[in-house]
Amino acid sequence: MTTALNTPISSIGTRQLGKNGPQVSTLGLGLMGMSDMYGPADRAESIATIHEALEKGITLLDTGDFYGMGHNEMLLQEALKGHPRENAFIAVKFGAMRSPDGQFVGVDSRPQAVKNFLSYSLKRLGTDHIDLYQPSRLDPNVPIEDTIGAIAELVQAGYVRHIGLSEVGADTIRRAHAVHPIAQLQIEYALFSRGIEAEILPTTRELGIAITAYGVLSRGLLSGHWNKDRAATASDFRNHSPRFQGENLDQNLKLVEALRSVAEQKGVTVAQAAIAWVLSRGTDIIPLIGARTRTRLQEALGSLDVQFSEADLEQIEKAVPAEAVAGERYAPAMMHLLDSEKKNPVV
């Protein structure tokens, strides 16, 4: 039975989170950049951006317990004060472990760890339940069945409403779904990141699982605001991202300019065109926009008014061929950890 949030959503619209899941806003707000990864963020502006998102009808708010080592969840609790809890659909990722200096030091998805992580998230968020709970990465030392089984117990206890996955491949999706219905898979999907189209997307569609797409602007490359002379701050992980390095960056910015030509013909920005392209890939796909300011949020919301014809989509394909993107989406050490990037052996 499909459930819906109590809040009315008008112009932004809704999409269903899985075959039997809830209705959430057509766009979600990813909160990571308000605490981590992209350099310092303005706390007051972050909270104002969350408030603006809620006022515009965005209900899906995506966070992680390791974003800023708990900072992001506490920021969200502060932003939601005075707002009805049912107006926010809170999605939390867990499992990534970090040292005091911010380095990632592993993944822990053991059943007892799952329950421990959830307890702290509930406290930091100031809520009695998480709407969607998902392991951030596959733990190579723990069968996915054990992890999902532990979250299923938390569903039964009322602490979690729905179960999701993040950055896993088709085989893992099937194994997890056999234990408990999976509402959504969070994974990178953008004009610059189309790896899911071969096997993962057909699998989620077969099983009735939605996609929440992060990285829709490829960490700012597809925002239309990045140039090769722009330097990332010391704490910005793009310093180590292959797509932002040397000749890779030069090639990728050429693709951005090709997309800009198409966008300008439509009277929209590069970012709006990039988000609208993801929206056009199917109603089972919900883009997560990582806006850290109200200005960027407003720009992203403009993508909802963009309609592409078949001719427009063909133009975009010619401007940004998937095989023309230079560099992997993560540094080699991180790519190695992604279950979604592992290729199934040919039998």
From TrEMBL:
Q: Which residues form the NADP-dependent oxidoreductase domain?
A: 27-319
Query: What SUPFAM superfamilies does UniProt report for this protein, alphabetically?
Result: NAD(P)-linked oxidoreductase
Q: Which Pfam families match?
A: Aldo_ket_red
Matching entries from InterPro entries are given as: Aldo-Keto_reductase, NAD(P)_OxRdtase_dom_sf, NADP_OxRdtase_dom
Write down the species: Deinococcus roseus
What are the record keywords, sorted?
A: Oxidoreductase
Q: What is this protein called?
A: Aldo/keto reductase
Gene3D superfamilies xref list? NADP-dependent oxidoreductase domain
**Which PANTHER family is this protein grouped with?**
AFLATOXIN B1 ALDEHYDE REDUCTASE, ALDO-KETO REDUCTASE YAKC [NADP(+)]
